[in-house]
Amino acid sequence: MAKRIILALLLVTLAAGGTFAQVHLSAGFGGNFAFGTDSVSAYDYHFFYSAYNIGGGFYVFFDADYVEADVGMLFGYQSHFFSYGHKEIKERIDVTYLTLGLYGKYPIYLGGFTLSPMLGVQFDVGLNAKNVNGDDVVFGDQRYKEYYMLYYYFNRLWVKLGVGADFNLSDMLYLRPSVLYGINFGTKWVRNQEELVDSFFYGLDIRVALGFRF
């Protein structure tokens, strides 16, 4: 009986080792361009808010065939437009984000390259924000310096869908462009507006990275 148990454990270990050996591990780094837009309207005071976000940055990633995890920095600005009652305010805010992403993907091998549909989440953490318009300050520069206010006005969670492709440069190196379309759930400030009647937040992320196989 003991020999059978040992043999069964050995077979399970070998099977697990074979499965793990089939997973190809790699890592790399790259750059990205990101664009997003927000739109919010409410009944009270005829409130309307819109913004677009433009930025670029860099990231590093770890890949295990069906999973990609990445961490990066995003630098850009937000252009805000507020309208409530008969008052309108415009402002521009420079923002720095830490980005954390986790994606599931399904690689399809097509000879010289691999195509991978992707679906996952990304969390943007506001690290710094500065209003550059001078007089037209809505939130206030001083409050931006406090972590809670950064969290309240800028942190956001995305769900992203897209596709990536790996082009082999050598046995060890590959080039990975990818395009991701995402929707997010708004910042905590937006979600706390109980009078909201309509809101939509979406964005596009274009990335290019260089990967190294282990």
How does this structure look, described?
The chain is of the alpha+beta class and 214 residues long. It has four helices and nine strands; from the N terminus they run αββββββααββαβ. It has an eight-stranded antiparallel β-barrel. A hairpin with a 4-residue loop joins strand 7 and strand 8 (173-184). The longest helix has 20 residues, at 2-21. The radius of gyration is 23 Å and the shape is elongated.
Features:
214 residues, alpha+beta, Porin, 4 helices
Topology:
Blueprint: H1 2-21, E1 25-42, E2 48-64, E3 67-84, E4 87-105, E5 108-109, E6 113-131, H2 141-144, H3 147-153, E7 156-168, E8 173-184, H4 188-191, E9 196-213
Antiparallel strand pairs: 1-2, 1-9, 2-3, 3-4, 4-6, 5-6, 6-7, 7-8, 8-9
Identify the CATH architecture: Beta Barrel
* Residue windows where pLDDT falls under 50 for at least 5 positions: 12-17, 135-144
Query: What gap, in angstroms, lies between the N and C termini?
Result: 41 Å
Beta-strand content bin: over 45%
Sequence of secondary-structure elements: HEEEEEEHHEEHE
Please name the CATH topology.
Porin
Give me the secondary-structure category: alpha+beta
The residue fraction in helices comes out at: 10-25%
The tally of strands reads: 9
Global geometry: elongated
Rg, rounded, reads 23 Å
Reading side by side through the largest sheet, how are the strands ordered? 1-2-3-4-6-7-8-9
Largest sheet descriptor: 8 strands, antiparallel, barrel
- Number of helices, where a helix is a run of at least 4 consecutive DSSP H or I residues: 4
